[in-house]
């Protein structure tokens, strides 16, 4: 039975130029591979060593990219190694099988959202009414499943995010601040649920996982072993769990370390 490796992408395996955290002297910086181009410009990177490790991992385990990105945003990433059979997008809202969203999983997600939380329209209206144009730059709806705001982080009042989180909690939603984006996501919409479905379909004997944000906490909790980097929401909150290892590495070198840990975990599996 395969080992299932479910990993968040942004700021876990791949990094924008602003998130690389290259603190060493320039001459000692790792060689980088661009893995995403957007509007004809390079956008996301991993080290060349990480790219080789990911290729090895794709040959040794069932690697499942697990992201909050929409399908369109995910599909512009060009990861090294064999194309993943499964991928999870929209924070678990879409389960891609050979690049195509699985209709059975979509139906399950739609039913859960209708039964367990306030509708997207209510949350969208609240965000539109209370976001301040002083710091708001963009409002977005992702896959008709959840909402997010792009903000000027330096101008964003910390209390505003806390108040939004309390409001959302009472309506079955959760709030996550990641870089310049504030996500409002229905609680039933989780990466963990989609990963459990992939494990069920494939008969995976072991699940390994990694992630950096609060939206990855449920993913790490359902894994047999998990890792988080030395940056991001989980690091800032000092979040931990018995099966989760907090790594000291930050930035793109954390991505490299996570892939080494994945490969080690796969190779140690009987």
UniProtKB/TrEMBL annotation:
Protein origin, superkingdom: Bacteria
GO molecular function: hydrolase activity
Keywords assigned: Hydrolase
Keyword Nucleotide-binding: no
Name of the protein in its database record: HAD family hydrolase
Species whose genome carries this gene: Streptomyces galilaeus
Organism lineage: Bacteria, Bacillati, Actinomycetota, Actinomycetes, Kitasatosporales
